[in-house]
Amino acid sequence: MKTLFDHNAVTESMLTMQHHERRSRLLDLIRVRGFASLDEITRELGVSASTARRDLDALEGQGSARRTHGGVVYASGDPKRAEFGERQPTNWAAKRAIAARAADEIADGETVLLDGGTTTYEVARLLVGRSLQVVTNSLPVANLFASEARTDLVLLGGYVSPRTGVCLGPYANELLGRLHVTTTVLSAAGITIEGLFNAHLLLAETEQAMLQAAGRVIVVADSTKFGRKSLTLVAGLDAIDLVVSDDGLSPSWRDQITAAGPRLIVASVEEQPPSVGPDAARRNPSS
Fold this sequence. Notes:
With 287 residues, this protein is α/β, with parallel strands linked by helices. The chain folds into 2 domains: 2-74, Winged helix-like DNA-binding domain superfamily/Winged helix DNA-binding domain (Arc Repressor Mutant, subunit A, Orthogonal Bundle); 82-267, 3-Layer(aba) Sandwich (Rossmann fold). It is built from 10 helices and 15 strands. The chain has helices at residues 2-33, 38-45, 49-62, 82-87, 92-104, 118-127, 139-145, 170-176, 201-212, 251-260, and strands at residues 35-37, 65-68, 71-74, 111-114, 132-136, 151-155, 159-160, 167-168, 181-186, 190-192, 195-198, 214-220, 232-235, 242-246, 263-267. The strands form 4 sheets. Strands 6-5-4-9-12-14-15 form a 7-stranded parallel beta sheet, with helices on both faces. A 3-stranded antiparallel beta sheet has the order 1-3-2. Helix 1 crosses helix 3, helix 2 (38-45) packs across helix 3 and helix 5 packs across helix 6 (118-127). The termini are far apart.
């Protein structure tokens, strides 16, 4: 009996290791792509659909992935782009708190334009599964919505920045000139009393076109961005309707922002972000 018990224990240990290795490979696949269909998973991992579903259930239970219609999206907010890898861990708690408050300001049925910043990506994650029309120049953001039946997705074309996965340049700007959206959500490299700054000349031009296309502009920026200039001025504060930042923002900056015209929402970093998906409670911004 002792030999049989040892054999069973070894077999169980090997199976556990196989599960762990396969799920690690699956998580890497989802992390790199942002979204993967069930067919892609079964083909690339060489497993049955039932095994893939069990593995997806396990990853979803860990909070690493989220099942959607037709596949799965990465749920840990770290798409494998150099820019995201370098910047996303910085002030991540603040970014997520800001994103939760910004997502509350967007009502179902809106047309929402999202740029490619790391904080904007966190907003996008909270909008997955909602009844929206999404326009974006960001491949990581587009991946989140690619298989969502409730969301109409428009991806702007143009030159793709290899660091960020963002489309920019004259083709993107030309298409933006033909569009009108309910809300544009922008991030920022820096904000001063002069306005919103960006470090990339081409991206600044695309963001200016995004501003022109918007009925309402929301800027999401953590408190470290205030008082910081960058290469190019995108727009003055009077072009912004709402600024969402975190509770690290100084009283002086709070006063300056509101005096300049935009409404200000300060998110508590201690707050937990709302659940992702269509069942999450959303506040209508018109209320």
